[in-house]
Structure formats: C-alpha cells, structure tokens
Design a protein that fits this description.
Layout lengths: L1 H24 L3 E2 L3 E6 L3 E2 L2 E4 L5 E7 L8 E4 L4 E4 L5 E6 L5 E7 L5 E6 L1
Parallel strand pairs: 1-4, 2-5, 4-10
Antiparallel strand pairs: 2-3, 5-8, 6-7, 6-9, 9-10
The chain binds copper (II) ion.
Length: 117
C-alpha cells in the first residue's frame, strides 16, 4: 500500500514538473502597437507576439543595476542599444516576415523572443 502511494506521489510530481515548465515556456504576450518590457534579472515579458508589417514600439525599462543588462541586442533587426538605468528606451520595429526573432543582452546571456504573427 505504501509503495502505491509513493508511486502515485512520484508520478504526480513528474506531471507537475512537466506542466510547470511547459506552461512557463508558452507564456506569450501579445502586443498590438506597443509593449512595455521590464529589464530586471531578465526580460519581462520575455516572449512577445507582434503583428507583421506593422510598426511596434518595444519600450524597455531597465531596473537592474548590473552592467550585464545595460545593452539590448536585436540581431535580426540590426539594433544594439544602451539602456540607461530607470529610463524608458523605445525601440520601434516593423517586421516584414513572420517568424521568431531573438533578442538578448549585450553579452548574449539573457534572452527573449519576438514572435511575428
Ligand atoms: Cu549580459
């Protein structure tokens, strides 16, 4: 009987772990014409969905003191910008193709995604 309970708890734990990480991954925030992104130990939100062929303003606001996050790089859009602390930096992009585009900090340590729909 004890073994059955342990097995059930074990399986429940595995299911919960999978569910937790899958849910986390799929958290996509849809932007219409602008999106505020907080830079603090990473990017929040980190996965953004934006429309194709339209200008979208990404408003980065850095709260993190570490120099790691002081630069934002959108390689696919050939954008590299300095983010001053506690100041909003607006980056406008107009993607012409659907797909997934990555953005990262200047050292490529923290990542985010832009999904063009
Ligand atoms: Cu970095």
């Amino acid at each position: 009987m004890d073994k059955v309970i342990v097995t059930i708890i074990g399986i429940a734990g595995i299911i919960f772990t999978y569910w937790f990480f899958l849910m986390k991954k799929d958290e996509v925030v849809e932007a219409t014409d602008s999106m505020d992104i907080i830079v603090d130990g990473g990017y929040s939100p980190s996965t953004i969905s934006i429309p194709k062929g339209k200008r979208t303003n990404l408003n980065f606001f850095r709260k993190d003191h570490s120099s790691c996050l002081e630069e934002i790089v959108l390689g696919d859009f050939k954008i590299r910008k300095y983010l001053p602390l506690n100041q909003e930096v607006s980056i406008a992009i107009t993607p012409e193709k659907t797909g997934t585009y990555d953005f990262a900090c200047g050292m490529n340590m923290f990542h985010g995604k832009i999904i063009v729909r």
